[in-house]
Amino acid sequence: MTRNTAERNRVGVIGGGLAGLASACVLAARGYSVTLFEKSPWLGGKAAVLSESGFRFDMGPTILTIPSVLRRIFSEAGRRLEDYLELIRLDPQWRCFFSDGTSLDLIEDTDAMAARLDAYAPGTGSADGYRRFQALSERLNRISQRHYFWKSIGSVRDMIDWRAGFSLTLMSDVLNMRMGRSVAGTVRKFNPDPRVAQMLDHFTQYVGSCPESSPAVLCGIAHMQTDEGVWYPKGGTRAVPEALVQLGEELGVEYRPDTGIKRVLTEQNGARVRGVETDTGETIELAAVVSNADSARTHRELLREQAPQAAKRFEQRRGYEPACSGVVLYLGLNKAYDHLLHHDFVFSRDPHEEFESIYRKGEPAPDPTCYIASTARTEPETAPPGGDALYVLVHAPYLRPHHDWKKMLPEYRQVILNKLKTTGQMPDIESRIVYESALTPQDIHDRYRVLNGAIYGLASHGKWNGAFKPANRSPDVKGLYLAGGAAHPGPGMPMVLMSGWIAADALDQDGVASKDTRTPEPAGV
């Protein structure tokens, strides 16, 4: 291919997941020529849709929190999110079912939730403990906003500008991060009732990691959710990538689905990006690349030949453990359950036993927690009249060599259904199922090309450095940027969208590509 100026100044995005779509939109809004490559025939990554027999299921994420992140991406182009997406606020946010037969709703307002806890667990101090926990969560969120979010971070050294001097405010922020303490320990310090603690543990399940091993700073997620709310996009979470694709098209992004990338091409002995080679052997010269592929697989597969030293340095920087995987059952019911909310948790009998199985033994939990999205009560069109489209997710260990999910699924499916029958108070669920499909960790690994089937990228384990993922700006290869759940700031829909924004912003700050002199078409054309 001829090396001309237009090609040299084009920016490539590898992967059309939410982070890749966000990066492409931000870069195009800031004036860059952008081509996005996606191996699958669809754009949106895990935010895909399954439509069968009159039922419609979100296949991946089912919940949108921190919508301000998405609004910021659209505002880059002077657009209003509300012109592209209709969001429905859900409050109560979750309904929780416990093995003792009780249930508890998580509601948005802190004082109202505290009053509910006073009635649910009288005499335990849970109401006051919840208020104090939320106050801590708010402080942790403020610290994250000051030092952690919206910039490329790979370690605590990147997070704080020590050159600015050690102020009392900085010292207070460092102390308030509660480094060396876990999510589970912090939750239980404020919330002595084991059921309430189990509910609060699951704020960190957005990042697919063990609360007993994750750093306490992740407790800030609780405030993020209660502050901005839980939302359901009309049309399902699939509507989010569809809105981003539409925005990108308006801004001139070139989308190339069905185009896998075989390797990232470099020059100067692997020190600088110069383009990509597709699976079909096409060579495309680029000024810079944003990889929305898993960060570990980016280095192990896309950079191994062209930049072996960079790939080696990535592996030596720290040990990268996959986050957990999951088993998802898509259950089409001919009759809905009235006692469910849109979002529900059916909790395990013993969280320690559950986490020990998944995260330490690497085996499916014998008595798992089931997350349920019951969408028909909010959007009846997701199921035939009177029915429901249940999305049931159970966290499972990332793939080990001895796991054979073709053999394991039938037995574990029954474990999940038995949990729904008992703790979930759905004793006749099998008789109501008229459509069923499933995803296993092996399916997730094969379909989305993530590390060992991990849904949430890299684990957030380690009480000191567990919050840190690979930085969005590669320290090893100039012109390479990382985005997605396996890059800073980590997994979950708002975080991967933020990672896409950060990668694009870092590229823009670095000046590694020239901007397109053409003016994007105005909104509405």
How would you portray this structure in words?
With 525 residues, this protein is of the alpha/beta class. The chain starts with a helix and ends in a 15-residue tail after the last helix. The chain has helices at residues 5-8, 18-29, 67-75, 110-120, 126-147, 156-159, 168-176, 183-190, 194-201, 220-228, 239-251, 295-302, 308-317, 351-361, 405-422, 429-432, 441-448, 493-510, and strands at 11-14, 34-37, 49-52, 55-58, 64-65, 87-90, 94-97, 103-106, 230-233, 254-256, 261-267, 272-278, 283-285, 288-291, 325-333, 343-346, 370-374, 388-396, 433-439, 480-482. The strands form five sheets. A seven-stranded mixed beta sheet has the order 8-7-16-17-18-15-19. A five-stranded parallel beta sheet has the order 10-2-1-14-20, with helices on one face. A three-stranded antiparallel beta sheet has the order 5-9-6. Mean pLDDT is 91; it is low at 1-6 and 519-525. The longest helix is centred in the N-terminal third of the chain and has 22 residues, at 126-147.
What keywords describe this structure?
18 helices, five-stranded parallel beta sheet, 525 residues
Quick gist of this model?
Keywords: Carotenoid biosynthesis, Oxidoreductase. The chain has 525 residues and is an alpha/beta fold.
The Rg value, from CA coordinates, equals 23 Å
Number of strands: 20
How confident is the prediction overall: mean pLDDT? 91
Structural class comes to alpha/beta
**Low-pLDDT windows of residues:** 1-6, 519-525
C-alpha termini separation: 33 Å
Tell me about the largest β-sheet: 7 strands, mixed
Number of helices: 18
Q: What spatial form do the alpha-carbon principal axes imply?
A: globular
Q: Report the portion of residues in β strands.
A: 15-25%
State the share of residues found in helices, binned by percent: 25-40%
Identify the strand order in the major beta sheet: 8-7-16-17-18-15-19
